[in-house]
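## Example record

The block below lists the input lines for one assembly entry, exactly as stored, with component labels intact.
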Amino acid sequence: MMSERQQLAYIAAKAADARVNVELEAEGMTLNIGPQHPATHGTLRIICRVDGEQIIWADPAPGYMHRGYEKLTEVRTYPQINTLVNRIDWLGSFANEVPFILAGEKLMGIEAPPRAQWIRTVMFELSRIANLSLFLGDMGVQLGAVTPVFLAFRDREYVLNQIEAATGQRFHPNYDRIGGLKEDLPKGWIDETKAAMVKLRHFCDQMEDLVMGNVIFQARTRGIGVIPRDVGLSYGVSGANIRASGVDWDLRRDQESPMAWKHADWKVWTHPDGDSFARYWVRLQEVRESTKIVEQLLSGLPAGSVMAKVPRIIKVPEGEAWVSTENPLGEMGYYVVSRGETGPYRVKIRSASFNNVSIASWLLKGTLIPDVITILASLYFILGDIDR
Amino acid sequence: MGSHLVPTDDLWVRVRTDAWAPAHEVLRDQLQMEYFCFLSAIDWKPSPFGKGEDDPTEPPVERDMTIRAGVAGGDTRFQVFSRVYSVLRHVGITVKADVDDESLSIATIANLYRGANWHERECHEMFGLNFEGHGDLRNLYLPGDFEGYPLRKDFPLLARIVKPWPGIVDVEPMPGEDPVDAEGAGPEGTGEAS
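Predicted structure tokens for the full assembly:
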């Protein structure tokens, strides 16, 4: 005769067995990827239901890095928020500052002097190159090719050095101000940057040979993770992800902006396929175009001041403004509601990765587990840009 | 219902609460605004805590708590707004709608724009608004048992309540230095005009 305690243990063991059996007999099993996993960039967690190797459904679960920026903006002043928004997409930080500062300038009705706009555009493109060149190498790592990422880290440093030389910071420049820039460029910076652009173009050629020309890479990315045009637009997918689906839309070209892109001769590249390969291809071309923009703008840099006349304490008049720009990851915008104080009343941060990743549950359905990694890598998100 | 146009720049349209979803259907199907930019909400009732800069030793500050609506008007405390864009014609529009104070509920547009799914989930957990017909308003960021709605203005920012900003100055003056001078000679602000 079993004691009461033994009986309970027996029942518990039986119940556990039964659960395991149900799990084995049921269709598929639940596979948790992340939040800490080498193949996810940062802490994105994905809960998948798999049948063998095939995904039945996938549900991304962000929020492991939510920092509450929208709440924090309500208690900070405009110059203070500039340091906050730097940390949204930390690989292309300067690009985060620009739309916010432009929104502030729009509400105040001031415009930065031409030299400031041109340098802003140059720094914007430099942060795009720093951001996307890491992607170009990182995509190889996701497929087991380790060499490209080392080259990417090496060559990205040339750009980061230039950003550091001008702003004092490699990652979080905090260089933009309402009305202009913190300071002018240092001596000799223009020639050094042009030399770095040549190196970066060489890096692009290398990546074309090393990654894009690789047979394994092509086999693993061509026809994988296809985003049709209308589905992508409906999800709000933007940037290179949607241009890889054949949508010829780039906010740098298609929107009236005080920035200096209109003074350079460059192209918007699209790809009709919409698969992982197309997204890689478009980003590679984008880095090349960015190096051209930087060189052209630096050759024709106008003289003058880099700061307009602004009051010492910045008070933004009452109003609402929406400004977005074409950031390395896609459309990034700020909806700023001002009440005439030193800080905004409400800021809605529209970050690119949030929408780009929301398509993942649709996109991953029916794919195989190894493809999950390449598809997510090709969507290219930064966790801080999802969670804000 | 109300609109606000900044020529050559931007357009806001405010629609009735019950016209929220049909308006998006028109925008998507007839104006080819296929691209979904974002959806969010605003709490128009100012925060009772201000910027969390009150000195806790002083009596509470009286604040103006009247609701003032933004562009294109508004009658209720909460307002949802969304932005859609046409990638063919390069025009965008911001649509606003009031949310009823009693029910805090508005129709979903996730069946029209798939991207609205996550934005409505975020809006639900941050503002406590209900999107009728969404069906899957799980928390996106916050833990499941989180209480309160962080982006409502009456939700205190605890970091500022626990330790008031900019903090009571507790820096000791340098020896032989007049404490009043030390305070005045702080680092120059970054917003200095040139």
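Chain A touches chain B through 59 residues (CB under 8 Å). Strands of chain A lie at 29-33, 45-51, 54-61, 176-177, 180-181, 319-327, 330-338, 346-350.
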